[in-house]
Amino acid sequence: MQYREVLFPYLNGEDLNSRPDCSGRRWVINFRDWPIEKAREYAEPFAIVERDVKPERARNSDRRRREIWWRFTRPTLELYEAIADFDRVLVIALVSRLVMPAFVPARQVFAHKLGVFATDRSADLALLSSAFHNQWAWQRSSTMKTDLNYSPSDVYEAFPQATRTERMDWAGAGLHEFRSKLMLDLDLGLTKFYNLVNDPTRSDPEIQRIRELHVEIDEAVLEAYALDEERESAIRDYEVRKAKAPLPAWSDVVLDHGFHDHGQGTRWTIGPQARLDILDKLLVLNHYRHRQEPETGLRKPKKTARARKTTPAATAGPASPATSHAESPNSAAKETDSLLDDGLFPPDGALF
């Protein structure tokens, strides 16, 4: 009997961000959705579960947990089917100040506080490691003490993504390969590793190289958005109609990398004006793509509600995002929410 069929590494967010190889410290027994007769064929693992798990499940108030005591109650089988053909997948800790994805082996059990992306493409690592995704995540998520509480529905599913490019593939692969080796050499997990990257007093050649790789990632992602805007002129036309003040074209956005106050301390990241421009343009792009979904068949248009008397303020359309981030935090948040309430769209292949 091959026990490797039921024994798996178990990865959670703490291990992902704290261990140099992003590996899990523990292993679990996973009988998937098997009937008890099949699970019993794996005598030693089954005996462990029967001895240690069954007594605990017998006292559980959830009837289903008592009845299927040898299995996970919610095993998310769709996720594991989706990643079955991958050697590696992209994951991110859902509660963390870091907001930094990493590639890990696909053959393991993932904790519920990990976001798992069914992809092994380096361009996806580049996109989700970019300042574009990072800023969007902090804008659209709640916080838990000083940590960001990453909401897949509010962040990833609403994130208007650029078309992947070869340059993004190269940039993502470069970051993964160099960072993986350096983390092992320094014996640092992702959190402590990026503390060095964000420390202005550290000028080590290796750390400076990581900063350069993130600049390359952001420039590659910016170029991808610019190419999409050039190919689809309606995006820019929509932006001009919606914005209260002119927004720059993607090709004119100046990233201004350096050590800047990120709101969570000093970080190596894009400059303040770039953050405003990027968030405003992503917000309009989200709204534009949401409006296109009925035409492309991705979403059926909502039925028109029965007309009713309203005040003029209640009938006003979504507020323009053009200048929202230059205003006070409260007004910016309200204006952002008013637009995004009608701009959520799940992209193909999102599994959580």
Annotation keywords:
14 helices; 2 domains; alpha+beta; disordered C terminus; 3-stranded mixed sheet; single chain; 352 residues; 3-stranded antiparallel sheet
Can you describe this structure?
The protein is of the alpha+beta class. It folds into 2 domains: 3-8 and 21-80, no CATH class; 121-301 and 317-340, no CATH class. 45% of the residues lie in helices and 12% in strands. It has 14 helices and 11 strands. The chain has helices at residues 13-18, 36-40, 43-52, 54-58, 63-67, 77-82, 122-129, 131-140, 166-186, 190-197, 205-231, 233-242, 272-296, 329-340, and strands at 7-11, 26-29, 88-93, 95-96, 102-105, 109-110, 114-117, 142-144, 147-149, 258-261, 266-269. It has a 3-stranded mixed β-sheet with strand order 2-1-6. Helix 7 (122-129) crosses helix 9 (166-186) and helix 12 packs across helix 13. The chain is globular and about 65 Å long. The two termini are 32 Å apart.
